[in-house]
Design brief:
The protein has about 375 residues and is mainly α. It has helices spanning about 35-40, 45-50, 60-70, 75-85, 90-100, 115-140, 155-165, 170-180, 190-200, 205-215, 225-235, 240-250, 270-285, 290-300, 305-310, 315-325, 335-350; strands spanning about 20, 25-30, 30-35. It folds into two domains: about 20-220 and about 330-350, Citrate Synthase, domain 1 (Orthogonal Bundle), CATH 1.10.580; about 225-325, Cytochrome p450-Terp, domain 2. The structure holds coenzyme A. The site of coenzyme A has 17 residues, from helix 16.
Length: about 375
């Protein structure tokens, strides 16, 4: 390999869903600044934007919101399968299995060529992933899963299905911002995985399973739960400095939620989530974990190693704090990422449908012209 690997710098598609300038911390969805979208839109508006290259009218928004909510229930057989799994099954493995199983119940699962059918499947799956996430939380807690409501948005339905109570407005607003911020992000590893599958002519569910599988890794979506586990391990603000000395200065570990392949300055999503974490801390009076995260960021950013390598908190760093303050189990953080990223994944899959097979080359570094020796003579 002549470069550092990882397809760094390779361009694999023309896209209009999102654009990132990592040198100045800029992210846009189809032309709109992420800062504007985060403060002013709902997740369903983003879903509409990614598929239609424009924001919806109120009537279009309401129609899409209801379409997603109306199809969000999952078959009893999928719930039964989830109940049959060991309670310590990683939530991402549960989600991967449940989405794969859902294809068997989707009337259009094997319709491989019709983009309108693929969009309808994507909207069904968007609601269903929300339901799977909430259902798994309740199953693990020994509670009965709750059926989604037709009158609620994705964020509201998730908060409602967690508890069965009327969804709390502050929690819904924080979750909605999270969903908006995580919905799409260029040619990230999981999106690329969905495109590779879609380019073979395979189906939407298979592509989304590939996306979930890639997102699960700690170098990608798994970093949000790893970041929270790290904050919990540190335990208190006063422990940040000795923890940093013992684990980071010695080179033993990386700070999870810091560093990014594309952003070499502030990730704009991290700043927005930090502000929401501040608001949640303010309203709850509980700011211990936020203080640990802020102190660790300050410690890292004061260190030459992090400055020279342009390492800043990424989206996972403060989203860990927001999700924890929303009462989610750490294991559920990455499924929540998938609950949002389904929007970007499925828009990429539909765009890729009918496109050319993705088939890069590898640099062969093995031997040539070896003499074959029969097994009994080896
Ligand atoms: C995201 C990540 C995988 C990007 O990887 P990448 O683009 O391949 O960058 P590299 O792994 O080559 O890192 C570049 C340098 O910064 C260092 N580095 C990167 N992230 C670091 C971190 N979180 N803590 C400490 N050092 C880090 C690397 O050790 C490397 O140092 P070197 O040049 O001396 O070898 C990487 O920053 C990381 O592992 N971060 C933690 C996990 C995480 O938050 N992932 C979510 C991403 S949204």
């Amino acid at each position: 390999m002549t470069d550092r690997g990882g397809l760094d710098g390779a361009v694999v598609a023309d896209i209009s869903t999102s654009y990132i300038d990592g040198s100045i911390g800029k992210l846009i969805y189809n032309g709109y600044a992420i800062e504007d979208l985060a403060e002013n839109t709902s997740f369903e508006e983003i879903l509409f934007l990614l598929f239609n290259e424009r924001l919806p009218s109120r009537a279009e928004y309401e129609c899409l919101r209801e379409t997603v909510a109306a199809k969000a229930a999952i078959p009893d057989a999928v719930i039964a399968m989830m109940k049959s799994l060991p309670a310590d099954t990683p939530a991402m493995a549960v989600l991967r299995t449940a989405v794969s199983m859902l294809s068997a119940f989707d009337p259009d699962a094997e319709n491989l060529s019709d983009k309108e059918a693929a969009k309808a499947k994507a909207f069904r799956l968007t609601g269903q992933i929300t339901t799977i996430c909430a259902a798994w939380m309740r199953i693990v807690d020994g509670q009965v899963p709750i059926v989604p409501r037709r009158d609620l948005s994705v964020a509201e339905n998730f908060v409602y299905m967690m508890s069965g109570d009327a969804p709390d407005a502050t929690a819904c607003a924080a979750l909605n911002v999270y969903l908006v911020l995580l919905a799409e992000h260029g040619m990230n590893a999981s999106t690329f995985a969905t495109r590779v599958v879609a380019a073979t002519g395979s189906d939407l569910h298979s592509a989304i399973v590939a996306g979930i599988s890639a997102l699960k890794g700690p170098s990608h979506g798994g970093a949000n739960s790893e970041a929270m586990r790290m904050f919990l391990e540190i335990g208190a603000v006063d422990n940040v400095a000795p923890w940093f000395e013992a684990n980071i200065k010695t080179g033993k570990r990386r700070i999870m939620g810091i560093g990014h392949r594309v952003y070499k300055s502030n990730d704009p999503r991290a700043g927005i989530l930090r502000r929401h974490a501040e608001a949640l801390a303010e309203s709850s009076g509980e700011r211990k974990w936020l203080d640990v995260a802020v102190k660790l960021e300050e410690t890292a950013r004061a260190d030459d190693y992090f400055v020279q390598r342009n390492l800043y908190p990424n989206v996972d760093y403060y989203s860990a704090i927001v999700l924890y303050m929303l009462g989610l189990d750490v294991d559920m953080f990455t499924p929540l990422f998938a609950m949002s990223r389904i929007a970007g994944w499925s828009a990429h899959v539909v765009a890729q449908m009918g496109g050319r097979l993705i088939r890069p080359k590898a640099n062969y570094v093995g031997p040539h012209d070896r003499e074959f020796v029969p097994m009994d003579e080896r």
